[in-house]
C-alpha cells in the first residue's frame, strides 16, 4: 500500500520505492550487515515519525541527526522526513577527528541551525551532554535516541508538505567560523534527483545496483547515493566510510559481490585503492558490471583514472565506465556528468595561467564506450610549455544552464577561463538565515559556484577556485577555521595569521600558513607548534609555514587580514619584500 | 623475564608483542621517518592525518584479529592508548579461541 503523499517529497520518494521488493543493505564499520527492504524502511520511518510528533515537534522544525551507524542514520533520516520535519545531518564523532573537534563542531552547528531536537544513537548521548569547559552542554535541545524513537506510535502516512518547503539543510564543510547551512526545497532536490537518475544522467533502472561508502552526512553520499538510489528504486549497498577507510578493498569487493553497476567516489578513493588493494585481492574481483564509476567532489586527476583503469582491467574494469562529474551542495548536488566516456583536454599551461585561455596542444582524447583505448600521456608531443591535462565534466542537465562569465558577469566565449555560474531548478533556496551570504551566492537566479572553468565543444572543464576553500581527500577546509586554531599558538600574533590554499590544476591543493611572530619567540618551535595544532584540530598537514615579522601581512584599513592579497604576494614572491624584513628576520623587530 | 614477572608488570616494564607489533605497523604506515614512543601522539607528533589513523586501525584489526569499536576511535590519541586498547581487545578474545 502506498500512502497518499506528495510524490515530490523525500518521504514520498521512499513510499514509491516501498512498492518494489528492493531495499538497502547497510554494511557497518565492523562488517555487520543490516538489510532494510524499502517496504520495512517506510514502516520504520512512520514509527519514528510518530514518536517525533509525540515529542511535540511540529512541521518545519529542524532536527539534527548525529548517527554514526549506516542503518541507524538511514532510519533516522527518513523518520525525520516522514514527520514533516527538516533533517540537518551532522558529522559523527569518529569522522570529525578527535572528540574535542566533534564537540566544538556540534555545538556551533546545533546553535547555528537552531534545531528543535537532535536524533542520535545511544553511544552519542554522553558526548552531547558533555560539559566541555566550565559551561553549557553541547546540545541544549531535546536529545532523542533512534532506539527509543523506533518504538512508535506509527503514523498512518508521512506528513504531506508543500514542494517549496525546506527538505534538508546541509552544513557541507563542518566549518565553525563560517557555518553556512544550504537549504534545499523538496522541489529543488527532486529536480536534481530526476536529473541525476534520468536519461540525460545515469539512466538508472531496476537492473542497476548502487554501491557507496560515502558519508551520509555529506551531499555526495546522502543525495548522490542514498536519495538518488531510493528515487530510482534501485537495490543499494551502503557501507560505513570508516570501513572503507580502514580497508578500501571492501568497496571493490562489495561492487564485485553484489554486482554493483553504479558507484561514485572522489579522486582520492581511486588512489587509495591503487595504493592499498593487493594483487591477490584484485585477482578475486569481478568489476565487469560496474558501468558508472563516478568521480567528483575534488579535482579529477587524469593520471589517477588512467592508472586505476590499467590496474583493475584484469578484474573486468573498463576505462569507459568512468563518469567524471561536477557539482556542489548549493546546486543540490550534481551540475554536470560526463556520461559519454572521458574527454581529456591537453592545454598549454602558460596560456592557462597567464591569459586564462585554454589553448589545446593536441586533439581532445576521447575514451568512448565503443572505443576503449587507454588515456595514457601524449606520446612524442613537443609543447612550448608543459601541458596540463584536464578531464571534461560533461554537459549541464536538461532545464539547467551553465555559463562561464568574466568578473563583470559577461558571458565568455569557448576556451576562455572564467567563473562557473549555474541556473535552474536544482539551485538551493539560500543559506539558512543568512541573507548576506545568500545575496553573494545568488545573482538573478545564477548561482556563483566559486569555481573557475571553461567550456570546449559543449563540455565543462573545471580548473580552479576563486573562493578560499581548501579541498583535501574530498574534505573541505575553511581558512578561518584553521586560522583561529593557529591564532592561540604561543609566540604568534593572534591577529597576524593567514592560511590559504594554492590550487593546482592537476594535483591536490597546497596549504600555506603565513604567520607574524612575536619578537621573543624562537622560530623552529613555533613552526612545529603550528603544524601540531593544525593536525590536532583539523587532521590536516600544512605544506608550508612561513614565519614573518609583524606588519608583513597586508591588511584592510580596518585592520583585517587580506587573504587573497597575501596569497597573490606569496605566489609572486613579493610577500616579504613588499612588507618589512625577511623570513630569516623572524625574531627581530 | 616472562616467567619471573606478573602479567601486569610485564606490560609496564618491557615491550610485549602488542606494543612491539603496534610500533612496527606505525612505522610502516608513516610517510616520513618517525620514532614513535609510548607517549607519542598520533596526529600531533607522528604526523598521521585522519585517513592514516583509520588505515592504522584497519591494519591493527587484521594483524591482531580484533574489532576496534567505533567510539574508541575518537578517544585514542597516544601510542600508549592504542597499545592498551589492542591488548584489551585481543585479551577479551583469547579465552574464546
Structure characterization notes:
The complex is a heterodimer of chains A (about 600) and B (about 100). With about 600 residues, chain A is of the alpha/beta class. Helix content of chain A is about 30%, strand content about 25%. In chain A, the strands form eight sheets. Chain A has a five-stranded mixed β-sheet. In chain A, strands 19, 20, 22, 23 and 24 form a five-stranded antiparallel β-sheet that branches. In chain A, a hairpin with a 2-residue loop joins strand 27 (about 490-505) and strand 28 (about 505-515). In chain A, helix 1 runs antiparallel to helix 2, helix 1 (about 10-15) crosses helix 3 (about 70-80) and helix 12 packs across helix 14 (about 300-310). Chain A is globular and about 70 Å long. Residues about 1-5, about 370-385 and about 580-589 of chain A have low confidence and may be disordered. The radius of gyration of chain B is 14 Å and the shape is globular. Chain B has helices spanning about 5-15, 15-30, 50-65, 70-75, 80-95. In chain B, helix 2 (about 15-30) packs across helix 3 (about 50-65) and helix 2 crosses helix 5. Helix content of chain B is about 55%, strand content about 0%. Chain B is mostly helical and about 100 residues long. Chain B contains five helices and no strands. Classes of the chains: A alpha/beta (about 600), B mainly alpha (about 100). The interface of A and B includes residues 69, 99, 245 and 539 of A.
Amino acid at each position: 500500500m502506498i500512502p497518499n503523499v506528495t510524490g515530490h517529497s523525500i518521504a514520498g520518494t521512499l513510499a514509491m520505492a516501498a512498492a518494489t521488493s528492493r531495499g538497502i543493505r547497510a554494511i557497518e564499520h565492523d562488517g555487520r550487515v543490516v538489510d532494510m527492504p524499502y517496504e520495512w524502511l517506510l514502516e520504520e520511518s512512520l514509527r519514528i515519525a510518530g514518536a517525533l510528533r509525540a515529542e511535540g515537534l511540529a512541521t518545519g522544525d529542524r532536527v539534527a541527526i548525529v548517527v554514526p551507524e549506516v542503518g541507524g542514520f538511514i532510519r533516522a533520516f527518513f523518520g525525520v522526513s516522514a514527520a514533516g520535519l527538516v533533517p540537518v545531518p551532522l558529522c559523527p564523532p569518529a569522522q570529525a577527528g578527535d572528540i574535542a573537534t566533534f564537540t566544538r563542531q556540534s555545538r556551533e552547528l546545533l546553535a547555528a541551525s537552531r534545531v528543535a531536537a537532535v536524533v542520535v544513537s545511544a553511544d552519542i548521548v554522553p558526548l552531547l551532554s558533555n560539559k566541555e569547559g566550565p559551561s553549557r552542554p553541547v546540545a541544549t535541545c531535546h536529545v532523542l535516541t533512534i532506539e527509543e524513537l523506533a518504538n512508535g506510535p506509527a503514523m498512518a502516512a508521512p506528513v504531506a508538505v508543500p514542494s517549496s518547503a525546506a527538505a534538508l539543510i546541509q552544513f557541507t564543510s563542518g566549518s565553525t567560523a563560517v557555518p553556512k547551512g544550504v537549504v534545499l526545497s523538496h522541489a529543488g532536490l527532486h529536480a536534481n534527483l530526476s536529473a541525476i537518475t534520468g536519461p540525460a544522467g545515469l539512466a538508472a533502472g531496476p537492473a542497476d545496483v548502487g554501491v557507496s561508502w560515502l558519508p551520509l552526512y555529506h551531499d555526495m553520499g546522502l543525495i548522490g547515493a542514498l536519495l538518488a538510489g531510493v528515487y530510482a528504486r534501485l537495490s543499494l549497498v551502503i557501507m560505513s566510510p570508516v570501513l572503507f577507510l580502514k580497508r578500501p578493498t571492501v568497496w571493490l569487493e562489495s561492487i564485485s559481490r553484489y554486482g554493483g553497476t553504479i558507484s561514485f567516489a572522489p579522486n582520492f578513493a581511486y588512489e587509495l585503492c591503487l595504493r592499498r588493494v593487493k594483487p591477490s585481492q584484485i585477482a578475486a574481483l569481478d568489476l565487469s558490471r560496474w558501468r558508472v564509476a563516478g568521480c567528483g567532489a575534488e579535482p579529477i586527476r587524469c593520471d589517477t583514472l588512467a592508472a586505476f583503469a590499467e590496474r583493475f582491467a584484469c578484474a573486468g574494469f573498463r576505462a569507459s565506465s568512468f563518469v567524471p562529474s561536477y557539482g556542489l551542495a548549493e546546486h543540490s548536488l550534481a551540475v554536470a556528468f560526463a556520461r559519454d566516456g572521458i574527454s581529456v583536454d591537453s592545454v598549454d599551461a602558460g596560456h592557462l595561467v597567464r591569459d586564462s585561455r585554454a589553448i589545446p596542444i593536441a586533439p581532445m582524447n576521447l575514451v568512448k564506450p565503443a572505443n576503449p583505448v587507454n588515456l595514457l600521456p601524449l606520446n612524442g608531443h613537443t609543447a612550448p610549455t608543459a601541458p596540463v591535462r584536464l578531464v571534461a565534466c560533461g554537459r549541464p542537465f536538461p532545464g539547467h544552464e551553465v555559463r562561464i562569465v568574466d568578473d563583470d558577469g559577461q558571458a565568455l566565449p569557448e576556451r576562455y577561463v572564467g567563473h562557473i555560474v549555474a541556473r535552474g531548478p536544482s539551485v538551493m533556496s539560500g543559506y539558512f538565515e543568512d541573507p548576506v551570504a545568500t545575496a553573494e551566492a545568488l545573482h538573478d537566479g545564477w548561482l556563483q559556484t566559486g569555481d573557475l572553468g571553461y567550456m570546449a565543444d559543449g563540455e565543462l572543464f573545471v580548473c580552479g577556485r576563486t573562493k578560499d576553500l581548501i579541498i583535501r581527500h574530498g574534505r573541505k577546509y575553511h581558512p578561518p577555521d584553521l586560522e583561529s586554531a593557529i591564532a592561540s599558538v604561543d609566540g604568534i600574533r593572534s591577529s597576524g595569521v593567514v592560511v590559504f590554499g594554492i590550487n593546482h590544476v592537476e594535483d591536490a591543493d597546497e596549504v600555506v600558513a603565513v604567520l607574524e611572530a612575536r619578537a621573543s619567540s624562537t622560530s623552529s618551535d613555533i613552526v612545529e607548534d603550528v603544524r601540531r595544532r593544525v593536525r590536532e584540530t583539523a587532521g590536516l598537514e600544512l605544506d608550508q609555514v612561513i614565519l614573518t615579522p609583524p606588519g608583513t601581512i597586508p591588511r584592510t584599513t580596518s585592520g583585517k587580514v587580506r587573504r587573497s592579497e597575501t596569497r597573490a604576494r606569496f605566489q609572486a614572491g613579493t610577500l616579504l619584500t613588499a612588507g618589512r624584513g625577511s623570513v630569516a628576520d623572524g625574531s627581530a623587530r | 623475564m616472562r616467567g619471573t614477572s606478573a602479567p601486569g608488570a610485564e606490560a609496564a616494564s618491557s615491550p610485549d608483542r602488542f606494543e612491539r607489533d603496534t610500533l612496527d605497523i606505525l612505522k610502516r604506515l608513516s610517510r616520513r621517518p618517525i620514532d614513535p614512543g609510548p607517549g607519542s601522539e598520533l596526529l600531533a607528533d607522528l604526523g598521521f592525518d585522519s585517513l592514516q589513523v583509520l588505515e592504522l586501525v584497519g591494519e591493527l584489526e587484521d594483524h591482531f584479529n580484533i574489532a576496534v569499536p567505533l567510539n574508541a576511535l575518537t578517544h585514542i590519541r597516544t601510542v600508549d592508548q592504542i597499545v592498551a586498547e589492542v591488548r584489551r581487545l585481543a585479551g577479551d578474545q583469547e579465552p574464546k579461541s
